[in-house]
Amino acid sequence: MQFDDDAQLDPSQVEDVRASGPQPGWGGMPGGCMLPIGGRGGCGGCLLFVLAAVGLFLFGIIPSPFSGQGGGPQGGGRQPSAPATPVPTGNLAARCRTGADADQSEDCRIVGTVNSIQSYWRQAFQERGRTYRPARTVLFSHAANTGCGAADAAVGPFYCPVDRKVYLDLSFFNTLQRDFGAEGGPFAQAYVVAHEYGHHVQNLLGTMNRVGPDSRPGAGSPSVRLELQADCYAGVWAHNAVKTGFFREPFSQTDIDQALSAAAAVGDDSIQRRTQGRVTPDGFTHGTSQQRERWFTVGYDSGDPKRCDTFSAGI
Between vectors from CA 189 to CA 186 and to CA 191, what angle results, nearest 5°? Predict the structure, then answer.
């Protein structure tokens, strides 16, 4: 995974709030809870578990039943307007200017990856007569205050549909490798970020409405199908990434293997075996390791978002 040295990065797409640290009174999510799916009555589309309580470390969409906010933008409500003033970006603007910087710094690599992902989806939406609305990524440490409520790093990376932002604590990648057996590496990070932006695409397209307030977990549940589609969208971006101008050449098989390893590590069956010693499909929320690898591959091999219809196809 090598960036084009001359690619111009746009650090304004990434907010760096790590220096501020967790704010007083932030307790994160209620320990040990399994948060309900949002649909029309909430603002999310998948279930998230708290690492400290039950040992699960997933990434997806964060709902906000604890925030007092009902109905996300996917439900037809008012879209939040873009900030009128620049958002804090730490010193990313000074450090992350070109693709050469992205090859030397993890922070800048995230900036370059976000830039490429959004460049692809902007073009893909335009080709289909739609307007892509960009989403910022927020780099945080330990805890973050979001449009969906307060959350901590235990939930892993997540997307909040209310403020249309991706939240990322970079320590997640160490945990993914150390505790869940993923290979790690730069493209494992890129896959996770691309998956979260897949949720943003679903939010813009209204796909999250398919996960209603009464949805339940399970092997064929809407939440599983939503997550697998986000994996497929990540693969679609990977197929088209070099066309965005941010990368020197198409990704290598080593890069793709890193993504597949990360996808397998966070499969429901893999996590359940590690945490409870058995597999219970009735509790699936994200899909099995095999399914997650498969749908990333479908997206990567085809490069076509239309191939990512996990709601109609067998999964």
Answer: 110
**Segment holding 196, helix H or strand E:** helix 186-205
Cα–Cα distance for residue pair 115/97, rounded to 1 Å: 12
- Which of 158, 165, 179 has its CA nearest to residue 52? 179
At 89, is the pLDDT very low, low, confident or very high (cuts 50, 70, 90)?
low
* Strand residue runs (E) in 77-209: 136-139, 143-146, 149-152, 158-160, 165-168
- Specify the pLDDT at position 242: 97
Work out the percent of the chain whose per-residue pLDDT is above 90.
63
Lookup: tokens for 268:
């429901």
C-beta separation of 3 from 99 below 8 A: yes
Q: How far is CA 110 from CA 115, 186, 202, 243, 268, in A?
A: 8, 9, 21, 18, 26
In angstroms and rounded to an integer, the radius of gyration of the C-alpha atoms of the chain is 18
Domain boundaries, the chain: 11-76+87-308
Exposure pattern of 58-80 as b/e (b: 16+ CB <10 Å)? bbbbbbbbbbebbbbbbbeeeee
Phi and psi, residue 314, nearest 5°? -70, 140
User: Do the beta carbons of residue 76 and residue 2 sit within 8 Å?
Assistant: no
Measured CA to CA, the distance from residue 128 to residue 305 in angstroms comes to 11
Token pair listed for 15 = 């907010």
Strands in the chain per DSSP E:
14-16, 60-61, 136-139, 143-146, 149-152, 158-160, 165-168
